[in-house]
Amino acid sequence: MTSKGKKQANKDLISELKKTRKKAELGGGQDRIQSQHKKGKLTARERVEAFFDQGSFREIDALMTHRQSDFGLDEKKIPGDSVVVGFGKVNGRMVAVFSQDFTVMGGSFSEVQGQKVAKIFDLALDSGVPVVGLMDSVGARIQEGVYSLAAYSELFWRNTQASGVIPQISVMLGPCAGGSVYSPGLTDFVIMTRATSHMFITGPKVIKSVTHEDVDLESLGGATVHSTKSGVAHFAVDSEVEALEITRKLLSYLPSNNAEPPPALKPEDDPNRQDQTLDSLVPADPEEAYDMRQVVEKIFDRGSFFPVHLDFAPNALVGFARLHGQAVGVVANQPNALAGVLDINSSDKIARFIRFCDAYNFPLVTFVDTPGFLPGVQQEHGGIIRHGAKIVYAYSEATVPKIAIIVRKAYGGAYIVMSSKYIRTDLVFAWPTAEIAVMGADGAVDILYSKQLKEVEDMEEAREGFVRDYQDKFSKPYRAAASGHVDEIIIPSETRPRLIASLELLKNKQGQTRSKKHGNMPL
Amino acid sequence: MNEIEQGLILSGIGIVITFSALGILILLIVLLKIIFPTGQAVRKSKTETEEIPAEDQSTRERKRKIAAAAAAAALSLQKDKTQSSGLGQVLESPPGNWWHKKLDRIHFKE
Hints:
The complex is a heterodimer. By secondary structure, chain A is α/β, with parallel strands linked by helices. Chain A contains 20 helices and 17 strands. In chain A, the strands form three sheets. In chain A, strands 10, 11, 12, 13, 14, 15, 16 and 17 form an eight-stranded mixed sheet that branches. A seven-stranded mixed sheet of chain A has the order 1-2-3-4-5-7-9, sandwiched between helices. In chain A, strands 6-8 form a two-stranded parallel ribbon. In chain A, strand 11 and strand 12 (326-333) form a beta hairpin. The radius of gyration of chain A is 27 Å and the shape is elongated. In chain B, 78% of the residues lie in helices and 0% in strands. The chains are: A alpha/beta, B mainly alpha. The A-B interface holds A 258-259, 261, 264, 267, 271-272, 323-326, 399, 497, 500-501, 503-504, 507-511, 513, 515 and B 85, 87-92, 94-96, 98-99, 101-103, 105-107, 109-110.
């Protein structure tokens, strides 16, 4: 072949590749793309482009096709099948992604989709980069039978292997039903879009036939339900663009893997800043509520608090924030909701967040103001013991730096579980408003002085006297400080510089972990 | 003259020259001190001979106070530079080797 002929042959080859790429880029075709747009949804590739830093996405396995022939599948071979996988940069840091393509057979999970996802997962796991799944699929590909189920299993297995090694985020942008929900269920964070995404094990029709309950798609498995009631979703947003934005923001706090510290930003806020409004923020009346989020926002770097699971179990507040640029995990009781009590859901919320922070090297800062665990038959029968124990387990197991600030009430068992000194919290500070006791003064007096109260003439006056005595003893933190149960009583406005100095001290902390396969957490 | 005697004579000459030079140097220093007396010595001789007027004394006191204040300010400035807490500085760099040891233990279960 002549030199000109060789050049032409190469040109033809490249042209052929370009054509095949073009076909792969179209996915299920122009009609399906338009139909996707009509539903207010982006295509798999549009999502990927919107998610990554401009021009940084690199696709792999774009030409993989399935090998099935049953049910006419041999006539439906589309390069890339029903998922787009690859890697790119988010805020300059590498992230792996798989984006299910609804235009190709409804994004159904085929054997090939499983192989592609498994490959990118393995690459991410070996390289120590986070994995983000952009989910939009009808579920398993029925035509493929057991091949599809096996592919799902491979994903679930990898989800589990990667747990605690690389951060995993599921962004729900369409339906996710049946067994397929276990993959997002296994990941660290789930982000859902309202109206367009749904998650459930069994759909409304099956529920109707089995339990005769009438329920629509949105009420069963919509973003609002999962972000407020079930706690499956950590974030619920109105649009896909918002979902991708929140994913990028979340990633800005997370390290790429468990061997890295969380990324620190150049500090912009004054480390010595002391917000004087903190000194009067906690109401003198212990029955009066206030917003713990305000406390958190005034202490941490301005605008850095990023709440997680905000609408689920609102009596607890968890999220990421920065102190002098350093990312930390924040756990707090929220007196604005249910007086900040601990119940089943808030226990799960707190414990899961602590475990994430410990796995990925986030120091933990805890703000305590809780009157205790929520009493009630429903809570007891729902297993509050088991769920509450998760908080103790998570705090006790965590080896990252742990700092606690007792803001106001710290009563009974709730005091112990909320990062007390005894479960190896490194530094425990108390504000002058702190009350550390077995229970509130009124309840304690009724038990301690029941006999005396029956014998006195003026019961009310005597009772008031006993309550005052009890309050003098336990409604101030000095007794706890005198016995070393609290490391220091601090003025609220001093909290920020105190925390920064404490983090500096604990920066290189080495936690003690006993050698074991794994513990047996009360799940 | 044998070699030992020659060596002893040369050593003697060397010692004489060294000590003579040292003597001349000391003499020179003493002479220079006499010709150019230090400020302290001059003041001492002046106080011994003259009575300082009251007016001069208050001026000197004021000057002394100004000098003391300036010295205190300079010290304070220097202290600020060398002894500031540098709050948060440690957090601006990644964790040290001590921290990484912890990770090794977790990963490899020593």
